[in-house]
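User: Sequence recovery, please. Input:
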């Protein structure tokens, strides 16, 4: 069994930015489970499915194989042998991933890959149900969150930097909606594990969050 660090939290809490830095500095393999759900979402969209077509999604899932590879330590996600890493970060994919990840069959489809990675390697794995469901015996569990306003503002600035037109209120609404779906679904809802450390990054810098989490991970 590898040394396992689980980081869960809502969309836009900064999990991936923080997780990338902590894993690099501590020598963990970073496993981004949201990217796996996003890869499946790409498959469903490529099949022409709509998020509300639960039966179609369950059926299409049977023909989707998600695998991971690492290039210079950076996770690459493959869908049926094709690298789809560059296709994962659109609003359409976000929405499809958020809706389809509530379907139990979709979660089961990715469970083995996630547990296998944790078994083989020292991993820092982030997602929504890592500490509560995927790796209940993780060595360290973190619940990383921030207020909806802070998370929306961060995303807004991110889009602006990339020159993507966006509306702050719309982003805020979208994040609140996604939180509601992630936290209220029946299967593996997002919640803080009893033994997880709570880190609220609303008023913290990235460096402060990184150092706080690294301190929890000292072996
Ligand atoms: O972290 P992210 O935004 O890339 O995740 C995309 C979607 O996948 C998100 O709406 C919630 C879902 N997800 C999940 O249900 N369980 C995980 N372990 C990771 C992500």
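Assistant: Recovered sequence (219 residues):
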């Amino acid at each position: 069994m590898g040394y396992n660090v689980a980081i869960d939290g809502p969309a836009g809490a900064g999990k991936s930015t923080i997780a990338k830095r902590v894993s690099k500095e501590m020598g963990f393999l970073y496993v981004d489970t949201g990217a796996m759900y996003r890869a499946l979402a790409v498959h469903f969209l490529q099949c022409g499915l709509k998020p509300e077509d639960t039966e179609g999604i369950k059926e299409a899932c049977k023909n989707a194989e998600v695998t991971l590879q690492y290039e210079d330590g950076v996770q690459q996600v493959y869908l049926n042998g094709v690298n789809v890493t560059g296709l994962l970060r659109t609003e359409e994919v976000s929405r499809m991933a958020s809706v389809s990840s509530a379907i139990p069959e979709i979660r089961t489809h990715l469970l083995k890959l996630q547990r296998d990675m944790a078994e083989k390697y020292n991993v820092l794995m982030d997602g929504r149900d890592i500490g509560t469901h995927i790796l209940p015996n993780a060595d360290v569990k973190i619940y990383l969150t921030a207020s909806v306003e802070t998370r929306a503002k961060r995303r807004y600035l991110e889009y602006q930097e990339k020159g993507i037109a966006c509306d702050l209120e719309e982003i805020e609404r979208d994040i609140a909606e996604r939180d509601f779906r992630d936290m209220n679904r029946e299967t593996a809802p997002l919640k803080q594990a009893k033994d997880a450390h709570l880190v609220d990054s609303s008023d913290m810098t990235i460096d402060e969050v990184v150092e706080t989490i690294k301190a929890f991970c000292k072996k």
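Residues 11, 33-34, 37-38, 97-98, 101, 127-130, 178, 182 surround 2'-deoxycytidine-5'-monophosphate (CB under 6 Å).
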